[in-house]
């Protein structure tokens, strides 16, 4: 194949390869080589290297330009790309015979400017360490102004980029400037031989450092903290893939990602940015995913194009109070090089595309992100938050790839602007749950029993989509199997189970059994850990020193219970171990226990906790206000991370539920317990009412609709944790809306359970819009208790399969109010249509069925037709984007001929041809109700349309027939439009 053909054919792959590193370095190196070979002249270069444009636009222009220059230019482009890109990045490309072309320079030239171009690649490489000197000389000789020099040295540029700017600027100034520069470089003897020797030496040092970094990361990422003490499982043994999706809607069904895609091109929103955010709920597995990424890189099996990975924990960065330079940050916090620190650091600065930084738990970082203070200099010390924020923005070390994890909602719009993309970690899929439980239990029969127990308790199964809860449930399999059927139901139940499990383990060692009054028996431990946990949450502190432990009276015995683990990489002032809770949600649980059980707690604590949790934005005002609780100012709220305060408040609600009352009353004063319960009830009722009051009045002619604000789902979940139906009833008793909109709210099965618990008490039925969430089949089952209060159910993009449909239909046929369903973009097949046919036959008030973008074929359409024949109510039928073809269209058209209710029918994009159109024309002749018929994007030709026109002459109800994108010539369209004005092409 010729070079021209190779470039044309591989245009998308070339574009991807030159842009996917997130840095313009490879592209600029290719430009250097093409300039040096004279393929590009100076004007060409300026037209394709426009720094203010996205990299992709520049690359596209280069490909166009080179293509127009012909075969030789294309062959040199291929050779240059082959020379510049690392192996992994060019794996998809074929270079033909051009891979072996040697790209040397054009040889000596009489004019300095030509030398500058011909030697450009070598100059870029060799001049990096002499920029300061060169600028000084050029300034002294008047070749460059101070402004020119400042622009060249902008810290956002890497040293290589600075040299290129210098070369461009000097070429622009003319022959004299070029001569001055070349003479200076000659003087400092920047010979390519010497420089290459240095590079070799450098790589040896870097490789040695890489080895050290890899072995340190291997050691750190081998075990999960939740399994740390047991030594039973390595990450390899237990790691189970979670569901990863792009956070932003790309108009299609949610894109499921693999670990590789996190740093790949897919889903890129901002090509100039280098930071990828992985967000998810508490315990959804963000840290674990990062740990997996580190482990695989350290083994050399993943991200092989990355030479150095620097893993940071925001929890650890919180403890850094000094001002640090970037170099100190990297080497002190990650791994110290044994030799050649300066050279290694220089290498990092020069090769940002070979480096990855990861930051785990940005939500735990004490400072909220701000881009107001710029810090661009890699050698100048600055506070940790300045370094972190400037790294994330790309003003410091542009081109280094960054992966950040954070809880959902904790990242504000200020940071969003600097994100390359956001990836959502949605926890385990149903298969993931099974896989995890099997990995956790060596004994397959035990795994079977746990899974069986989960199947019989779908609320608990729903909870297990969150990996940390799946871990607890698996760990507490004995307690779970000993429980009565139906229990546990709430997250609080699950956490009480893990408490019981740990104390049980301890008692077994001491006396063999755990008595019913286990909480009373371990009351002191619970209170000590509870105080430590609460004080930590108030100050966003998750790592505790010996002094912190002492202040909360935590004893060695308390530590030995296993809820606290040694924090890796931390020591306190006296060089002793620091501790953290097994998982942060466990810290929240202990804090909640302390709030509920303590007699001495400030009376306003509960109020403050709920007020702070309501304030979503308070996570943006992170200030250390430990004194807040002690303050006498009444209107102060609790500080700390809003997500963690919300989790704590949820646990407080759960602990104060009737369900746990008798058990907890063994360990606290009844009056205070009652008082606290009343207070929480009041907070929740007030909170939800305030929420409803904020619903704007409907625009005239529109339904009264409520779009859930942040905090709504949290309130609903607190009410569910309390398991008090009177609160649920009271909460929605006065709600008068016709439509409840909860799109893009990250709603999974857990949230569905809570929603149904509350919404089943609605007095008037609502339209319930849950589009673009992760409801799934398990979530659908959880929603069933509120189906009777729902007139319309919108579940677009929710990963629902035929099994979910079976459940909805089974319940739906008994719910009088239930009249509409929209299931666009799910995983439905022809199996679903059997269920819908049954629904249509049985439920004679059902109005609307929208099943677009699923996998329904002609067989499914035939089954649906059976139901339609018997329906005396259906008005809207949407099958856009399925595969029903002519046979399916014929079946539907026949079945609908006698319908006296159908108003709207869409068969867009279904492969329908003339035969289908002929059958639909018969429907058009007979129907007296149909108003709109959508047939765009099919294969209907002239014959089919003629039939439709003929039928329309006998029909007065139809207002429009849409036929865009069918098999018609422009002449046909022109003529047919004249014949029938109701046709739209
Ligand atoms: N992919 C996974 N495979 C196996 N176990 C997992 C996985 N993800 C999470 N877990 C289990 O859940 C626990 C909590 O996960 P992790 O700490 O990664 O969650 P997180 O999303 O970082 O939570 P947070 O936001 O609260 O910090 C892990 O310690 C582990 O026991």
Automatic annotation (TrEMBL):
Query: Family per UniProt?
Result: Belongs to the NOD1-NOD2 family.
Q: Which PANTHER family match?
A: NACHT, LRR AND CARD DOMAINS-CONTAINING
Q: Which Pfam families match?
A: CARD, LRR_6, NACHT, NLRC4_HD2, WHD_NOD2
Q: What is this protein called?
A: Nucleotide-binding oligomerization domain-containing protein 2
Query: A biological process (GO) annotation for this entry?
Result: regulation of apoptotic process
Q: Which UniProt keywords apply?
A: ATP-binding, Cell membrane, Cytoplasm, Immunity, Innate immunity, Leucine-rich repeat, Lipoprotein, Membrane, Nucleotide-binding, Palmitate, Repeat, Ubl conjugation
Q: Which PROSITE patterns match?
A: CARD, NACHT
By its UniProt entry, which Gene3D superfamilies does this protein fall under?
Death Domain, Fas, P-loop containing nucleotide triphosphate hydrolases, Ribonuclease Inhibitor
**Where found in the cell?**
Basolateral cell membrane; Cell membrane; Cytoplasm
Q: Which residues form the CARD domain?
A: 1-81, 108-187
Q: Which residues form the NACHT domain?
A: 274-408
- InterPro entries per record: CARD, DEATH-like_dom_sf, Leu-rich_rpt, LRR_dom_sf, NACHT_NTPase, NLR, NLRP_HD2, NOD1/2_WH
Provenance organism:
Chanos chanos (Milkfish)
Q: GO CC terms on record?
A: basolateral plasma membrane; cytoplasm
Q: Name one GO molecular function term.
A: ATP binding
* UniProt membrane topology term: Lipid-anchor
First-listed, main subcellular location of the protein, grouped into a coarse class = membrane
